[in-house]
Design brief:
209 residues; mainly alpha; Tetracycline Repressor, domain 2; 2 domains; Homeodomain-like_sf; TetR/AcrR family transcriptional regulator; Tet_transcr_reg_TetR-rel_C_sf; DNA-binding; transcription regulation
Length: 209
C-alpha cells in the first residue's frame, strides 16, 4: 500500500519579529485614523498579521495600549517642563529664558512624538485611562502657568495678560502643529521652534522694549 502523504500543516498566522514597540506604533496609528472606540484588538491583529493572543502577549488590553501611547507623550512633555522648572539657578538662567526653553523643547517633543501627541490631544475623558491623562495634562499646564507668572514678575514678559491665558495660548500654538506638520515637509523641528518662539515672545515682550 502506498504510504499516506504527510498531512499539510495550515500556514502559521502572523509574522515573527514584532516587538512591543512595533505593536504600540501600529496601535497609535490605527487609533488616530479610526478613533480609539472604532478600533478593536482584532483590527490591530489583522493590520500586523498576528493573532489576538500575540497582541495580548505584549499588552493585556486595548486600554493598556492607549495608556502606553498617552504616557509616551505625557512623559516627554513632563520632562521638558520639569527640566525648565528645576533649572531656576542652572543653565537656563531667568524665568524668561526657562520659558523659552520649555516652549522650544515642547515643539521638539511634538515633532518627535507626533502620533502619540496627536492622540493625546484627542482625549476627552471617556475612560479612567483618559481621565488620568487629562489630570497629568492639567499638572503640566499648571507648572507652565507658574513659569509664565515668574517670567512676568521678573519683567521678562508683559504683565497685562493673565499667566494662565498666556500659557494656554503658548501651548495652543505648539499643539496646533499636529494639524499640519508632516515629517517629510518643508520645515524641520528647529525651524518651527525658532518661528514659534520668535512670534510668541516678541509679542509677549514688555511694552516699551
Amino acid at each position: 500500500m502506498p504510504r499516506p502523504s504527510p498531512t499539510r500543516q495550515a500556514p502559521r498566522r502572523g509574522r515573527p519579529g514584532y516587538d512591543q514597540e512595533t505593536v504600540l506604533r501600529c496601535a497609535v496609528d490605527l487609533f488616530n485614523r479610526r478613533g480609539y472606540d472604532g478600533t478593536s484588538v482584532g483590527d490591530l491583529a489583522r493590520e500586523l498579521g498576528l493573532t489576538k493572543s500575540a497582541i495580548y502577549h505584549h499588552f493585556p488590553s486595548k486600554a493598556d495600549l492607549l495608556k502606553g501611547a498617552l504616557n509616551e507623550a505625557l512623559d516627554a512633555l513632563a520632562e521638558v517642563i520639569d527640566t525648565a522648572v528645576a533649572s531656576e539657578d542652572g543653565a537656563h538662567g531667568t524665568a524668561g529664558d526657562r520659558l523659552v526653553f520649555a516652549v522650544r523643547q515642547a515643539v521638539h517633543v511634538l515633532v518627535e512624538h507626533l502620533p502619540a501627541v496627536t492622540l493625546l490631544l484627542r482625549v476627552h475623558g471617556n475612560s479612567e485611562v483618559e481621565l488620568e491623562a487629562l489630570r497629568r495634562r492639567r499638572e503640566i499646564d499648571a507648572k507652565l502657568a507658574d513659569l509664565v507668572r515668574a517670567a512676568a514678575d521678573e519683567g521678562s514678559l508683559r504683565a497685562d495678560i493673565p499667566p494662565e491665558l498666556t500659557s494656554r495660548l503658548l501651548f495652543g500654538m505648539v499643539n496646533s502643529l499636529v494639524e499640519w506638520y508632516r515629517p517629510d515637509g518643508r520645515y524641520d523641528a528647529a525651524a518651527i521652534a525658532d518661528a514659534v518662539t520668535r512670534l510668541a515672545f516678541e509679542g509677549l515682550a514688555p511694552r516699551g522694549r
